[in-house]
Amino acid sequence: MKADVSRQNAVRAAARQLGFDLCEFVAVGEAPHANFFDSWIETGRAGEMHYLERNQERRRFPALLAQPGDPPLRTLIVLGVDYHQFDLPPSWRDDPSRGLVAAYAWGDDYHELIRPQLYALDRWLRAQSGRQSLGRGLVDTGPVLERDWAAAAGVGFTGKNCCTIRPGSGSWLLLATLLVPEPLVPEPLGPEPLGPEPLGSRPQPTCGRCTRCLAGCPTAAFSAPYDLDPRRCIAYWTIEARSIIPRALRSRFGNRIFGCDICQELCPYNRRLTPRATSLTGLQAHHHRIAPPLLEGFAPSTPYWLEPDLFNRHFARSPIRRARQPGMLRNVCVALGNWGTPETLPALELALGSPDPVVRCHAAWAVGEVLRRQHPPAAELLRRTIAWETDSRVCEELRVALADS
Asked: Distances in Å between the alpha carbon of 225 and those of 79, 196, 209, 368, 369?
């Protein structure tokens, strides 16, 4: 075991040099909560995230990720990057004229930043061991249940909000995994017990009786502790989904236009953390991505909410591009509706002219929210629009908006 510790410490030192804050190890085996994940998929929880429905067997047994002819994968290295840089100022968070972006997206896309560092760590390890085959490096987009393995490796425990929580760092962690043939940990003696608590023999903290994250979710996205229903989650709708957001949920989004940090902001483990500079180059926050003014992207000089090419340039290298320009315009329309001021009507009129009917649906709803706050010019805009609109879904939104006023 001493040899294992020495080799692990050498890998940890190499990982730190590459910008990783955490590096832990676990023997490759069966994913501890694969049965729960399969049931979760079978009940339709994945929604539009169809990629989660693929490669079920590989998610259960990550050893199957080895390439034919390569040596078997024996060790799963779990790596973490702490992305907490500072807390969002209340003056921005509570300003309805600003659109809130999840903290992980304040910098450049972490997938593109972490992936080359994983390859570099594998290259370093190959140089040490003489291995010729490549390891498998994955940044939460491949078929690995990384939070399961993070708990098994001792990175932290899984909280009731389904985030990996590490006391002292909280849950502001980006996880990645590197599967390698080198036996860096002893083989397990038997299967680990299943359950929501951390795995292995190390004593770990838990959430205890705390349920602040569950009670504080504005869309009631948690069916139970450790059980998130993405179909009610703000992050799912503002990042992953491309379709029409359920009308009953829209008013609960507030001004969050990309992702949601509410369950993390409420977590006691995330309180009083010391602001720090991220160790991964490129992850530093870009000022204009933290909480952009909602109306700024409609201005004639900067119409980045309206024009795909300008949107892609404005958010170059940003994970915000994952939602795509029509998706972000849809999200912004919801935030404008929740703001509900007459100032939003010129922008919403532009959104009603979008070629995307999903965008127009949400713009119509937002104008209706302005009208509901007793601003008569909104009714005129709705009537003008319904005179030429041909999409049945948009027409329905326009009629509902007029009827509810």
From this structure: 25, 9, 11, 36, 33
Active site residues: 140
The set of residues, in sequence order, having a beta carbon less than 8 Å from that of 322 and lying 6+ positions away, is: 109, 239
Q: What is the pLDDT of residues 240-275, one digit of tens each?
A: 999 999 999 999 999 999 999 999 999 999 998 988
Q: Residue 46 is encoded by which pair of tokens?
A: 């994945």
Give the position of tokens 């309180």: 271
Separation in Å, CA 90 to CA 93, 95, 96, 250, 341:
5, 8, 11, 22, 21
The 3-state DSSP class for residue 84 equals coil
Q: Could you tell me the residue range of the domain that residue 70 belongs to? A: 2-180
| 171 plus 304 within the same structural domain | no
Of 115, 149, 180, which marks where a domain is finished? 180
Structural contact between residues 265 and 246, judged by C-beta atoms closer than 8 angstroms? no
Q: What is the pTM of this model?
A: 0.93
Q: Which tokens hold the place of 325? A: 């320009």
CA separation for the pair 114, 241 (Å, rounded): 25
Q: What is the mean pLDDT of residues 95-113?
A: 97
* List of residues 6+ apart from 228 with CB closer than 8 A: 45, 161, 162, 221, 222
